[in-house]
Prior knowledge:
Layout: H1 2-21, H2 25-41, H3 43-47, E1 50-52, H4 64-72, E2 76-83, E3 88-94, E4 100-102, E5 108-110
Parallel strand pairs: 1-2
Antiparallel strand pairs: 2-3, 4-5
Amino acid sequence: MKEGADNDKGEIRKRMIGLRDAIPPAQRQALSRAIQERLKELEAVRSAATLMTYLSTGSEVDLDGLIAWGWTQGKRICVPFCRTENRELLACRINGFGELEPGAYGIREPRQHFLRPVAAA
């Protein structure tokens, strides 16, 4: 039973990524900006001292503008760092986009000498 569910999940994921990839880049950028603006309006985001977000890759929603806004608001920004050897994700603080490099799976993540893990609250 589980194997079938895993196959179904993989097929759905593949189909959703295909649909997302089919959105024209200019429209994707406009949608990303709209999503960022909506997030900035949320009280939970406005009042948070720390924002944990992902760093987009491919056709994912680009949140770089939200991250930059967070810094202007004095927020601590945390992003995932992947330890591939044990499949662990660490939340790490970043203070600028210059601290990033392509990491596991080509996704931007903090460079080794900028690793600042943040403990879960």
